[in-house]
Amino acid sequence: MDNYPISSNSLEKFFYVDGNQLGQQYKEYLSEYKTWDQKEHASEWILFPDNIGPYLSLDETALSNGELYTVMTSKDGKGKKGTLIAMVEGTEADKVIAVINRIPKKDRELVKEVTLDMAGSMNKIAKRCFPCASRVTDRFHVQKLAYEALQEMRIAHRWDAINEETNAIENAKLDNKKYVAPTFSNSDTKKQLLARSRYLLFKSGDKWTKKQKERAKILFDLYPDIKKAYSLTHSLRMIFSHTETKGVAYTKLARWFNDVTESEFKSFNTISATVYTHYTSILNFFDNRSTNASAESFNAKIKAFRATQRGVTDIPFFLFRLSNIYA
């Protein structure tokens, strides 16, 4: 239990012990929890300065009842021991900065790169704590915004289709007729077409199945705006996937901005403005092609560990175990 994210209850069938009693004994006697030097402030913050490295990630995670913690990890740890550097309750920048600044300045100045999302608080933390480091906005957060805008357009059309079908059914009832929804060549109704197109819009066209290609053709013929929005989303993805140098990426993103402006899609104009705000840190991705995937993976490990405990009731003890495994 010192080294693996398992629960005491999971050991019952292997060692024929009472899992709940073992968990209590481990907490009170078998572990070093009572003498842990960070126990007093663990619910507010924990810090492991020795784990700091040149390449870091900043993200947030929820431990209990949706309460957020800011997490700083080292990519050198590769998701194992030596990964966790700091966890601070909340996402308030000044509070997190105060904790991270406990790490000696000379060590913080050795950090070369910090990957993060587009939250203003994360950018402030990285800028204040690691003044010599390059800040890189995670490309997947940028692409996610585009996907959400595309899905927003699909959902709006779906609601229109639902209302259209509901009205048609009511009119049929008034005329004492049975309503039969018209279908396309793939047997989808308009409402079904829009509902079933959700996942294909997340994928590149070359990865569509035969049925998805047929559904996409019908969808794009019926809704040219969705086709255009899909094209904008796909072109943004291709910029990140196939562009090698920052200078070329700068030019391609400028062209993408022009395409978004010409499309006159409100949701995409919002994305364009957001990307423009983080333009420099987004372009920094093309230096080392760094993403925040390691932080997202670490968050998944925290959630999986939390699930084995069936939730977190004792946050300091949970963080004690987390630090033993990953710090």
Characterization of the model:
There is one protein chain. The chain has 15 helices and six strands. Helix 5 links the parallel strand 5 (113-116) and strand 6 (134-137). The chain has helices at 12-15, 19-30, 93-100, 105-108, 120-129, 139-174, 190-196, 210-222, 224-242, 246-263, 266-277, 279-283, 285-288, 293-308, 315-326; strands spanning 45-47, 55-64, 67-74, 84-89, 113-116, 134-137. The protein has two domains: 32-137 and 291-326, Nucleotidyltransferase, domain 5, CATH 3.30.420; 139-288, no CATH class. It is an alpha/beta fold. Helices cover 55% and strands 11% of the residues. The protein has a six-stranded mixed β-sheet, with helices on both faces. The protein starts with 11 loop residues before the first helix and ends with a helix. It is globular, with a radius of gyration of 25 Å.
Total number of β-strand segments? 6
Helix content: 55-70%
- What's the order of the H and E elements? HHEEEEHHEHEHHHHHHHHHH
Terminal CA distance: 14 Å
- Averaged pLDDT, please? 91
Return residue spans where pLDDT drops below 50 for at least 5 consecutive residues. Answer: none
Which term fits the overall shape? globular
Q: How much strand?
A: 5-15%
**How many separate domains?**
2
Biggest sheet, in brief?
6 strands, mixed
Tally of contiguous helical segments: 15
Structural class based on helices, strands and sheet pairing: alpha/beta
